[in-house]
Structures are given as structure tokens and as C-alpha cells.
Amino acid sequence: MKKLAWFPEALFNSYAQVFFSNNKWFGIILLALTFVDFNVGIHGLIAVSTALFTGYFLGLHEFNVRQGYYGFNSLLVGIGLSIYFQTGPLLLGLVIISGMLTVFVALAFEGILGKYGLPFLSIPFILVIWILRLASRQFEALGLSERGVYILNDLYLLGGKFLVNMYEWWNQIPLHTSIKAYLLSLGAILFQQNIFSGILASIGLLIYSRIGFFLSIFGFYIAYFFYQLLGVPFTEVSYSYIGFNYILIAIALGGYFIIPNKSTYLSLLFIIPITAVVGISLQQVFNLFFLPIHAFPFNVIVLLYLYGLKFRIDNRIGLSTIFWQQQSPEKNLYNFINYQERFGKESPIPIYLPFYGEWSVTQGHNGAYTHKDDWKHAWDFEIKDEQGKTFRNEGDFASDYYCFDKNVLAPADGIVETLVEDIEDNTIGTRNLEKNWGNSIVIKHSEFLYSKLSHLKKGSILPKIGDKISKGDIIGKVGNSGNSAFPHLHFQLQATPFIGSKTIDYPISDFWMRFQGKESLEAVGTPSLDALVSSLTPNHQLKKAFSFVIGNQIKWETENGEKIVWEVKRDYWLNTYLLCQKTKGKAFFKLDDGTMHFIHFTGNRQSLLYKFFLAAYKISFGFSHGLQLKDSIAINMIFHPSRIFIQDLVAPFYRFLKGEYVLSYPEKSRELGFQPIKLEGKLLKKAFGKEMESYIFNFQIDASGLQYFQFQDQHTQTIAKCIAN
After folding, report:
1. What pTM was computed for the model?
2. How confident is the model at residue 140 (pLDDT cuts 50, 70, 90)?
3. CA–CA gap between residue 491 and residue 674 (Å, rounded)
4. Is residue 148 part of a domain?
5. One domain, residues 264 and 169
6. Domain shared by 176 and 270, yes or no
7. 3-state secondary structure of 286
């Protein structure tokens, strides 16, 4: 039985995935919905089970099987066949065969479309149902179904007179034609042509996603009014077979594959009418073959749209595709916003300062001299002494300048794209305007992200074109070549690989900054003119305590004697996380040389791991005396789901809830040696800027690592001692 522990989760997810969800309760509601017609429900269940066991015995990736990615298409095929054909042994065999076939078709399209980063959606269902509909014309022993004639009998057997009365009551409610059509369209997604099923589906959709529920209504009514505008016949019966295309497109492109915001809602005003035109025209073609179009328009438009977005060179209209699918429009939105707040807009790859020690920004963005127009997003760095001078003696020679001949470091991992290394250094006060950038190196970090370091010393550049380099590698030395009267380092980020390319506004990650009498640790930022900046110098104790090594275990003992074990693991997508052996909760984290960030949590929110996730949400390994780290926590990570219902509805347009994190370091300097370190902090839940609740916590760290961890909320206090790390 333990080997089949995955089956219930995979089963419910297969139903929920019809609406892009992995919500268990939504899946249960949809499963119950299919049993409004018992024969439909049982054949759908058989088809899903066949697909899941096919995936299991083929040895497919368990996560994909559990998520229902291979089950929902088979579900639709099984339900569709039971609607069209009479119940019997032949239909049962056909459903089992189709369940297996649908998995193979899904795998084929996963390979074909996956190369382009596109989902296979319900294409396997459409192809298989068409294949079987065409083939069945030769199956003389397989009779057509009279499904729907005996539905009240089926309901009575399933739930007695109460369920029959409820079904009739819902269907007799006097509703506007458009509302009936909307409910029929929802039910039609699972081949249920009745208002009762539509009501069940809408309740499930509301439980799954408030944004998804609103989008379903929004998308449907755009289509409804477009049909009215064109004068196209729009009856409840005919529309219910295709109306779900507009509902699914609105959810998919309004909030599931694209982060929901004003732009996604506005884009639906154009996408839905396009889908209507495509759907109407396709129906005329498929009528020639006596085949329904089902969800074909939905698949065509979604794939065309997502594929088209991949050719953008900027995101000027604010349509951001999902980089970590959370299976919910709300979760996608909250995590995306939180990621931007924490790590910078459009900065998925961290770029670090390209030098050792503390340097001064002698020209920043929109500088007074050369950082203008297309080249305005750049920095010039020099070293200053305590008197604010950049040179010793009279400054007549390049060697008098503190930054001259200092090492220049790679700001991130990458490949050397372009370099120039044979330009003579200028004598002080002169410039080489013909070779404006001087000796330079351009490093490719990803598509459309390059760094350029210029005015380097002749002959100092170490790597060659095509060499792979790692963050922190020495790549050259500061010189005085090109348009440079005094030694300095020019640093910029750009979208193209050429020396002289236009700059882009891209932040620097994890650096200390002293500016206008204040010292701060910046997770991401743009250093200003005259700011003093330096890279983090990690404290050994802190780094040892929070640098979780894959394969290690962290063992705790709570104040009541409970032993808890966490494992440090990495998943199929190379995400690192802590796994609680007892609760199976996961706390995902991102670790670099200077900082540990927790980024996501799944599991029991009463567990010690969740409390640790909140308390250690951001840990800097380097610090100054009295440093206060501040960060923001995604709303859905700190508020209970029942508390954010209203926020969910308006989240794409306005967010009034906020989670704040504050961590205080001791009143001592960075160079603490091996003295014990106590970190204290608090979490704040806010609504409209006012504090609602707060949690407090602290850590004790010594030379051996973490000692204990304490967390206190409004009702309880938890103390855990680390007994192995």
C-alpha cells in the first residue's frame, strides 16, 4: 500500500488540472461533479486511473504523475467517450485503451512543445477523441449513447431524493440567458450539460482561485458581448459546447501562464474576440467531418500567444510570464511581486561588485560627464583615502592613484564575449578619444545580459574570448586607457555583446554602502554618486550556521523533548530546500557567498520548519554593528488563506496587505572573531499600513554553528536546540 501512497494525490490533481489547479478540494468537487451522471463519472475515473498507472509503470517522473499532468487529458477522453457511446464492455475496453493512448500522445507533445517552453494543454485529449470518434464509425457493435435521458435515475441512485430535488431546483432558477450560458459552459468543460454542474464547478473554482473565478466571468462576458455585436446566434445549447474556450483562455492567459495584472485583463479584450473568430471559423471546417471543435480554439490561441511572447526584447506592456509555476494565479502574483521587491525588477541573475575592498562611486547613473543618453546607466569607481583624495603625492603619475593596477573581478559567472587589450595607458590629464573605451572586456552572463569593464591596464586582461569565468575570478587590472584622464574603473550592464553597446538599468546585488552618514546592506540596488561601496565580508560563524550543504541533516530538540530532523536536498529542477522528515514540509532557499534567502514554503504551518523559514527568511553573513536587515514576505506565505480572500479578488490591481521582516544584528563590529552572536528579529503583518500582528524570534550562534532558535507568536512560544548541523 505504501507504493500507492501517491495515487490519491495524483487522482484529485488530475481532475483539478482541468482548471490548471493542484488544489485537492477543487479536485474532489470536480470528481463529484462528474458523478452527476454516474456512468460518466465511473468511466472518467477508470480513464484517469489507467493513465496514472501507465505513467507509474512506465517510470515517468513521479512529480509530473502526482501533479496530474498526464491524467487530466485521459479524464476528458474517458468522459467524452461515455457521453457519446452506450455503456458496456466495449466502451470499458475503449476507455482503458484511450487512457493509455492519451498518455503516449501527451509525452510526445511534452517533448515537441517542451523544447520551446510551451505546455501541451489539452491537445492530447482533442487528438485522441477525434481519432476515436472517426474510428468508431466502423465499430458497429458500439452503439450511440442516450446519455441525459435517465439522469434523474442516476442522481437518485447516487444521492436519493434530496439530490434529485436539488438538481431540479437549481435548473429551475430564473436566471438571465447569459448567466445560464456561463454556468452551462463551466459544466461543459467536463461534458456536463446542466446548471447544477455549473454551480458546482463555479464553487470549486472560487475555492481554488478568486482571481481565476473573476477571470472566468470576465472572459465569458467579453465573448458574450462580442457575439452580440457580430449578430452571431448565441443560444444556451449551442454556446455551452464552446463557451468554455473563453473561460479557459481567460484563466490561462489572464493569471496562470502570465502574472495577473492590469495588462493581462486589458489583453483579454483583444484575445477573446480573436478566439471567437477562430472558433467560429474552425467549427465550419470541422462540421464537414462531423467533429466538434471542443477546446481546439483555446489550445491554438494560448500556444500562439505564449510562443509569440518569447520573441520580445523588452516587457513594455507589463506581461510577465511565470518563472516558477505555483498552480494558482494568486500565488503566482504574490511570489512574483515578492521576488521583484527582494531581488530587483528584471534581475533574475545577481551581478556583484567587480573589485575587492571599499571603492567610491565617482560617476553614477546620469553622470555629469560621460554617462549620458544611451550610456547613462553606468558607474565609475575609484578608491579614496580618509581625506577623500583618490591619489597620493601630487597625482602626476598613474601609479599615484590608489585604484591603479588593482585587480578587477568577474561580476558573475559567464563567458568572455569580446575584449580589447592593446591600447596604451594615458599619461595623467590626457585622453584617447579615438579609442574611447580603452582596454575593455565584455562578459556574457545570459541572453540579453552582458557586463562591460573598461579603461583597463594594457596587457592585464587574463582570460581570452570564449573562456568560461566564475564570479570573483581576476580578469584584469585597473588602468588609464581610452577616454580616461585619471585611472578609474568603468562598469556597465548591457543587452548586446559589443564594446560601445547601450547600457541597461540593472542593479547590483549584496553590497555594503556608506552614503550620507548612513551604512546599509543592499540586497539589490543602484549605488549613487559619492557612495562608498564594498562587497560583503562573511563572518565565519554565520556562514557556517546557515550555509546548508546538500546531503547534510539538521537535528533539533524542542523544549518538550521532541526530536526533529531536517534534510538538505535538491530537486529535479536544482532548487535547494530543507525537508522535514516528520511533516514532509519543504523550505526552499537561495544561497550565495554573502547571503541566505528563503524563498518559498510548502507544508504544515504549525511546524518548526515553517517557524524557522519565517525567522531565517534573510540572513546576511557579513554585517556592521547594529545592522538591521529588512525584507518583505509574500502575502500568501504569512497570512492564513481565509484572511486574504478579499485581497485575492483585488490583488492584480491593489494590495493592502503586507508582510515585513526585520533582523537585528548585535551592537558590535563586523570583526567579531569567534564570540557568540545573537540575532533578534520580528515579523509584522500589516493591513493598509497598520500593524495587525507580530512575531518575535532570535538565534544563538557560536563557533560550532547554530545553538538554539526561539520563536514566539500571539499564543505560543517555541524553543528548539540544535543538536547536530
Report:
1. 0.78
2. low
3. 36
4. yes
5. no
6. no
7. helix
